[in-house]
Specification:
CATH architecture: 3-Layer(bab) Sandwich
CATH class: Alpha Beta
Order of helices and strands: HHEEEEEEEEE
Number of strands: 9
Strand order of the largest sheet: 3-2-1-5-6
Distance between the termini: 71 Å
CATH superfamily: minor pseudopilin epsh domain
Shape: elongated
Oligomer: single chain
Helix content: 25-40%
Length: about 170
């Protein structure tokens, strides 16, 4: 008959078994790191697309809920944009009426916008600065992978995202 001390010594793992298990885990981690690093430009591209998409949807909802026009204005390079609401209905956007100013300064990402400015109306539709520019096109490109993403705001106010692979 075995005593409790003999059973206790037999259960568990040896130091050698633990080292082998740790070595296998380290090898698996080392194999996954290059894949994660290679996917970083795509992750950055998707992050920029999701952020712009969320901000535009927030601007549209705010225009409908407050009953005011919400102006979307992009900088020349497309990396900065300002959302503002004409809450006093004077047709001029003052500094106090700015809702948010966002900077998309993500390394390796280029943003192209046409037209540079537009408005979400209180009914949720979108109007550009000219009557023929009522669709807002935002192209987001990765410098490394040449993949593209697009955020499009249609005249109805509907916002769609598209993924283009090179």
């Amino acid at each position: 008959m075995k005593t409790t001390d003999q059973r206790a010594r037999k259960s568990g793992f040896t130091l050698l078994e633990l080292f082998i298990a740790m070595a296998v885990m380290v090898l698996m981690a080392m194999m996954s790191v290059p894949n994660i690093v290679a996917r970083m430009p795509t992750y950055r591209l998707d992050r920029a697309m999701r952020q712009i998409n969320a901000d535009l949807k927030m601007a549209r909802v705010r225009a409908m809920s407050e009953g005011n026009k919400v102006t979307v204005e992009f900088s020349e390079g497309g990396t900065e944009y300002v959302l503002s609401s004409d809450s006093n209905h004077d047709g001029i956007t003052d500094d106090s009426e700015k809702m948010m100013q966002a900077i998309q300064d993500i390394p390796g990402i280029n943003v192209y916008v046409y037209p540079q400015q537009g408005n979400f109306r209180p009914n949720g539709s979108f109007e550009g600065i000219n009557e023929w520019d009522n669709t807002l096109w935002i192209w987001i490109q990765s410098e490394k992978t040449y993949e593209h993403r697009a955020v499009v705001v249609w005249p109805s106010g509907q916002i769609n995202t598209f993924r283009y692979l090179s």
